[in-house]
Design goal:
Blueprint: H1 13-42, H2 49-54, H3 61-72, H4 75-88, H5 91-117, H6 124-132, H7 134-167, H8 171-177, H9 180-218, H10 225-233, H11 255-273, H12 276-284, H13 290-301, H14 303-319, H15 334-338, H16 342-391, H17 397-424, H18 429-440, H19 444-452, H20 458-484, H21 489-492, H22 495-507, H23 509-517, H24 563-566, H25 569-595, H26 598-604, H27 610-656, H28 670-686
Helix pairs in contact: 1-7, 1-9, 1-16, 1-27, 3-9, 3-13, 3-27, 4-5, 4-14, 4-16, 5-11, 5-13, 5-14, 5-25, 6-7, 7-8, 7-16, 7-17, 7-18, 8-17, 9-14, 9-16, 9-17, 9-27, 10-27, 11-18, 11-22, 12-16, 13-25, 13-27, 14-16, 14-27, 16-17, 18-22, 19-20, 20-22, 20-23, 25-28
Amino acid sequence: MSDSSSPPAPLSQGVGYGIVIGLGVAFAIGMVLTTRALKKVFGEDSHTTETFMVANRSVGTGLTASAVISSWTFTSALLGAPYLTYRYGVALPIWWANGQSVMICCFAYLAIQAKLKAPNAHTLLELIRVRYGHVAHILWIVMALINNIFNFTSMLVGASTAVSSLTGINVYASTYLLPLGVVVYTYWGGLRATFLTDYIHTFIIMIALVWFSLEVISRPEIGSIGALYDLIKALPSEGTVSGNHAGSYLSMTSDESLFFGIIHIVTNFGIVFMDTGFWQKGFSADVAAAVPGYILGGNAYFAIPFTFGTVVGLGALVLEQTPAWPTYPRRMTEAEVSGGLVLPYAASAVAGKGGAAAILLILFMACTSVASAQLIAVSSIVSFDIYGGYFNKKPTDRQLIRWSHIGVVGCALFISTFATVLHKGGVDLNWLLYMIGIAICPGTFPTCFALLWRKQTRAAAIISPILGMAAGFAVWFGTAHALYGEITITTTGKTLPCMYACLTSMFVPLPVAVLLSIRNENAFDWDEFLTIERVSDKHDDEGDEDTEGATPNNNRTPHKFNPSTYFTPERVTYMKRMSRIAAIWAIATFFGQIVLWPLPMYGAKTVMSRGLFVAWVVVGLVWLFVTLLVANFYPLFDGGARQIWEVLVAAKMSILGEKADTGREGWFDGGREVEVDEAIRVEAGQGKEK
């Protein structure tokens, strides 16, 4: 912070640079060596498009669930849930959590439908191009890039501000340095590197989150969950929270929390459905893993903003009254709160330099993990949809990879520069969290219709999102001016203008698309999606020194698509059954986490009792431990131990110059698909449809 009254950074710049640069370089080197070892020994070549973009479509349930948790653990979530809880109280973390969990479970349905209708697709935008042509395709390219750019930027703005406050590193330097190591290992390893590093990052993040949550409660200044309740009740600011019942931090009747929940839920439906990164993870999961992986990951993720936000946000309110707090005796300024500094300050108060270092570590891990997914998403748009769609209609595998690499590097440079501009313009994490849905949501319903409704016309797909975005921005600026008399960064970041604008941009396209399509008599034939082909795994004839020394299976195509083999009666029956399961889970999650839980408590207009609060936090902590098991240990149980062993064996054999048996199946190789097909046949045989 530039404010002269801001507390000194708890960690030195040397520690900051050591983590930001040192760990980034270490991950980059480790991933490059691992990728080369797997290629040399087992023929797992990240310089082929199917491996780089969709990991050969055979990632298991455990790793998919872990990747979902990792992809959703934005630094903005780790920073935002505590600081908004600090502002509005116990209701806020519920709305943050269900605003990220529900849509993941809903996306499970889209993921299995995509596998059923377009099994060879690499990106969402390929589906749009096949169905609606080039104009719609270009429009979706723009909307997808807006989505990825704002997601990446909001994460980087919050992370760089927090890193600067923890270490004293110049905020602009951290903005450019944080993505540096990610660029290297994503450049070399593609989506496989994303899955590998996602798992490692999530492993570290979950351990740190569990430790820090328990540490806050056990601080001498707090001591127990019941004591935390008593201390909240005794706060000078208790009873003064605007919009809360009785002004209490401990009431679920909180207008600002409800408004934020509406913004967050609507925004995140747009973020997930319009993020090509989520679609790529869906394409990369094997048929048996797509639905359970997304449902398990989505419900497990709920505990992170719910429990972490509750404990840290309320704990910060209490600790702020003690000498342990960095700004004591003054309260945090509005700029510090909006900048997301509640968590960094809480870390210093709870565990001094050790706590600050732990939070710095998890922010780095979360930032780099999400950055990797966003880089892959943008690179897929650059290579498949821009270069392959308009500059070279028949690109070779090597050319697509080259443009993917250009996309990775170019995206990182652009996002860092854009984040720097926002820093210069005084835009903080709060403003980005509230406004992002206005630009992202207009494509949500047209995207769903593209995969689920045969009758949506080309005109509807093009016109409806444009009208939705125009209406959203008009409502945003108009409401800000009507309510506050001016249009500035401050007024456009207020809750009500952002909420009305998000709802407008989300729902205006729905009636427009329906009205323009309802009389359409030329229903789309889903079989047209089968014209999308997988890119050959074979390199072109240009020299490629990386292929030298690789085993013969480096140039084979274990997953070459054969419709008659893929669409077996057992597989089709299985995917239809999983579609029904995904739909049921999506509906149940929506009603359970939104309609039946926080809404009735909002209407009750009560303040939590001590016993309810203790039970509330205990349930959250148990849920957080379950998330730890799902993210860290279930992937090992679900074949991950064998896969990690393969990585270690590959590294050893590569160092010793040994070669693997050419019949050996690698991590993402055909052996996994054989196992999956056998499981599908067994399950389909138990309840086969007519």
